[in-house]
Design brief:
alpha/beta, Ubiquitin-like (UB roll), Helicase, Ruva Protein, domain 3, 15 helices, OBG-type G domain-containing protein, 5-stranded mixed β-sheet, 17% strand, P-loop_NTPase
């Protein structure tokens, strides 16, 4: 059992999107380790890092994830990243690979927008100096709004007539129009609630401005976005970063209808400083045994750092390589705390409101759940499975998600750590009901 959502990675040419994808995906991982039956050519696997319960229960040696991996009590859960093509201004009018770009977005649950914070590439990705990266954030959102609004507006007159004729509710009418964007009815309802005080609920009275206002709130919820401000260690990045943070200061939190207060679809809380090239280089040096480095950490270890009596596992670096890794240490790791790329993945999962759940066969030794264990995968071990689900999912809904026939249809109860019995309508949230054993009849 695996999480099925996809996070789309977008960015103009030369913003660093390819480097970012290389930095967060595991190119050396075997296909058999992926919990997904099919990985499309433009998709990759990144890892969402969370504390693993194996550390709390002193079972790190017995922790054997079926998918992803666990290292020193940190669980790395695989999530899919989609490499979206053709991001240039005019995409909503088919410019570049605009049609493919916008169609790809339908698959995405959230967006990671890789932005060149150095200002050394223009809106087409051409080399320049002094470009304002805020423009990239603005026009990305503008393209998506124009795409959705254009599609809805072309059919709006007929939609309103059918709404009046059939007496359908406003939310059902709007959901029917927006279903092609892979949206849930709950998102449409929240967007409608957020604008109801300004535009009213009678959609037959809406003008073009009211419709656009609703679509903007709908997009805030449908495509939550994390901005990866990339190339932070390049000249001019500092002043651009400061200007961006000033522009989006105070955004985030919730407005009416629990819709975040955003600007250009962006929240201050979801802007992350990154250096994808630094991460790629550190990973390369680690794979070649020049340094010991854990992705997402704030430092690395060299042969010299090992000190006297070291066993010599790390190799000696030449002066050129040494200068480069020390520059990364000084300009990125010590200054910002990390290269930022792992944090971006964590934020992208976080904006979706997903939490990790560990289905187990026993709440004593935390073995694999009977629904997912098989003789072909080797069996054994603790905390074999980890599934990401929306916060607020009920215990019974999760049973259905795990295995509808074996668990849902034969459902006989559920319990968590300490043998605490769970009701069917108990909810799964961060820090509560995150380890579950199901009992089935027959």
């Amino acid at each position: 059992m695996a999480s099925s959502f996809v996070i789309a990675c977008v960015g103009k040419p030369s913003a660093g999107k390819s480097s970012f994808l290389n930095a967060v995906t595991d190119a050396s991982a075997k296909v058999g380790n992926f919990p997904f039956t099919t990985i499309e050519p433009n998709q990759g696997i990144a890892y969402y890092a969370i504390p693993c319960p194996c550390a709390t229960h002193n079972l790190t040696a017995q922790c054997k994830p079926r998918h992803g991996f666990c290292r020193n009590g940190q669980r790395h859960v695989p999530v899919r990243l989609l490499d979206v093509a053709g991001l240039v201004p005019g995409a909503s009018e088919g410019r570049g690979l605009g049609n493919q770009f916008l169609d790809d977005l339908r698959q995405a649950a959230a967006l990671i927008h890789v932005v060149d914070a150095s200002g050394t590439t223009d809106d087409q990705g051409r080399e320049t100096r002094g470009y304002d990266p805020v423009e990239d954030i603005r026009w990305l959102r503008s393209e998506i709004e124009q795409w959705v609004a254009g599609n809805v507006e072309r059919k709006w007159g007929g939609t309103v007539r059918r709404h009046v004729a059939t007496g359908a509710s406003a939310v059902d009418t709007l959901h029917a129009q927006l279903a092609g964007y892979g949206t849930r009815r709950e998102i449409v309802q929240r967007a409608l609630d957020a604008v109801a005080g300004r535009v009213g609920l009678a959609i037959e009275r809406w003008d073009a401005e009211a419709l656009r206002m609703f679509i903007a709130r709908f997009l805030d919820l449908r495509f939550p976005t994390v901005v990866a401000l990339n190339k932070i260690d390049m000249p001019d990045a500092d002043k651009n970063i400061a200007a961006i943070m000033r522009r989006y200061h105070g955004t985030g939190g919730s407005g009416s209808g629990a819709v975040p207060v955003l600007r250009d679809g962006v929240s201050e809380d979801n802007i992350v400083l990154t250096s994808a090239l630094a991460e790629c280089f550190l990973r390369k040096m680690a794979s070649q045994k020049y340094i010991a480095y854990t992705p997402g950490s704030d430092d690395f270890q060299t042969r010299e750092d090992e000190g006297e009596g070291a066993d010599g596992e790390l190799r000696e670096m030449d002066e050129k390589v040494r200068r480069r890794v020390e520059n990364i240490r000084d300009l990125v790791l010590f200054r910002y705390g990390s290269t930022g790329v792992q944090e971006v993945v964590g934020r992208a999962v976080g904006v979706l409101g997903y939490v990790a759940v560990f289905p187990v066969k026993s709440v004593v030794n935390f073995g694999a759940s009977s629904s997912s264990s098989s003789s072909s995968d080797g069996g054994g071990g603790a905390f074999r499975d980890c599934v990401l689900v929306r916060s607020g999912t009920t215990v019974r809904e999760f049973a259905r998600k795990l295995h509808s026939q074996a668990i849902d249809e034969g459902y006989a109860g559920a319990e968590t750590v300490g043998g605490v019995q769970l009701a069917e309508d108990d909810v799964i949230v961060a820090g509560k009901n995150n380890i579950i054993k199901y009992s089935v009849s027959g």
